[in-house]
Design goal:
The chain is of the alpha+beta class and 382 residues long. The protein contains 10 helices and 10 strands. It has 3 domains: 115 residues, Butyryl-Coa Dehydrogenase, subunit A, domain 1, CATH 1.10.540.10; 104 residues, Butyryl-CoA Dehydrogenase, subunit A, domain 2 (Beta Barrel); 148 residues, Butyryl-CoA Dehydrogenase, subunit A, domain 3 (Up-down Bundle).
């Protein structure tokens, strides 16, 4: 059994840890106005590309480092400790372009993947609709064939960083009668006529957007894979990245714990630091235990993915995503409780972390969907 990172993985962790603290955190904290956010987002993704982290999404033959679930988890854990924006940009780039690795033709791979590895583009993944979340087969966005092109119409919701992105992966039905088997995937570049992107107001301040498509004409060459391959592309991507959501929530929980631990040792009540009270000690001990339990679930699932243990990956990835996201919410909530009134003050770190910990319990498969997935895999004997 494997209980420690390899030497290469430790080097990767130390490398991303230095980068986040020295360069990415200051950039992320500088985001104040929307017109500045794309410029700063590009700086962040280029920093990640320059040091090879974006290459973890890309096969070696296209300039990447080779796909590594453990590596992606390490990067997301460290990014999310200091910058929600940086983690979101990194994750969305992978979500938007991993389908190219899965189903792209040679021209699409050569056009996009080397640029992904270098951190030259921002990506966005657009599957969800206002009335089609967990029930993906119910999506209503439509792609109608018109000669050598398609006309896309419909509405997408919760498209992270879409307003900043150079490339969006959009899912639409090419056959409305076939349910999930009628879904296809399309590569849509920024500035394409017929696409309108509007910001959504989110509780965590995430750059989320609605995407409106009205007779958006795309060349047939922009279709990713065959007609009807969209379901497989979407879930092949989500199955790969599900466990990395757990890694990101590890980072959020660790940041919340560190804030609470530090505050408890400094905050004086009734003549002594609150860390000396047993009630506070019990909270902090439980937080540390849950973080450690989540760590093993996350990295075991990532290791199984890298080892190609497909029959076991789905169950353990769902367990990791479910437990880590629920854990991060509990830990962040306890961190706020330890801070008392100051913990619910706007601008205090733990208040921000609590808001950041809420949405991951919903996206890329709700906690309820993860439980159903785990049960389904148990019935199959995995």
């Amino acid at each position: 059994m494997r209980f420690e990172f390899t030497e290469e993985e430790e080097m990767l962790r130390n490398q991303i840890r230095r980068l986040t603290r020295e360069k990415i955190a200051p950039l992320s904290n500088a985001v104040a106005e929307k017109e500045e956010s794309r410029e700063i987002a590009l700086q962040i993704i280029r920093l990640l590309g320059d040091q090879g982290f974006c290459g973890l999404y890309v096969p070696q033959e296209f300039g990447g480092a080779g796909i590594s679930s453990v590596g992606i988890c390490i990067v997301r854990e460290e990014l999310s400790k200091v910058s929600h924006l940086a983690d979101l940009l990194f994750a969305e780039l992978g979500l938007a372009t991993f389908g190219i690795t899965l189903e792209g033709n040679e021209e699409q791979k050569r056009s996009y993947l080397p640029r992904v590895a270098r951190g030259e583009i921002l990506g966005s993944f657009s599957l969800t609709e206002p009335n089609a979340g967990s029930d993906v087969a119910a999506l209503q966005a439509r792609a109608k064939r018109d000669g050598d092109s398609y006309l896309l119409s419909g509405e997408k919701a919760f498209a992270s960083v879409a307003g900043l992105a150079d490339l969006c992966l959009i899912f639409a039905k090419t056959d409305m009668e076939k349910g999930r088997k009628g879904i296809s995937a399309f590569l849509v570049e920024a500035g394409t006529p017929g696409v309108e992107i509007r910001p959504m107001e989110m509780m965590a301040g995430s750059p989320e957007y609605s995407v409106y498509l009205e007779d958006c004409r795309l060349p047939a060459a922009n279709r990713l894979g065959k007609e009807g391959a969209g379901w497989d592309i979407a879930f092949g991507t989500l199955d790969t990245f599900r466990v990395t959501v757990g890694a990101a929530m590890l980072g959020v929980a660790e940041a919340a714990f560190e804030e609470a631990f530090s505050y408890a040792r400094k905050r004086v009540a009734f003549g002594r630091p609150i860390a000396e009270f047993q009630a506070t000690q019990l909270k902090l001990a439980n937080m540390a235990m849950e973080i450690e339990a989540a760590r093993w679930l996350v990295y075991r699932a990532a290791h199984l993915k890298d080892e190609g243990k497909v029959s076991r990956t789905i169950k353990y990835a769902s367990m990791a995503k479910l437990f880590a996201t629920e854990m991060a919410w509990r830990v962040a909530d306890e961190a706020v409780q330890i801070h008392g009134g100051s913990g619910v003050t706007k601008g205090v770190k733990v208040e921000q972390l609590l808001r950041e910990a809420r949405l991951p319990r919903i996206y890329e498969g709700t906690s309820e969907i993860q439980r159903l997935t785990i049960y389904r895999e148990m019935e199959r004997g995995f």
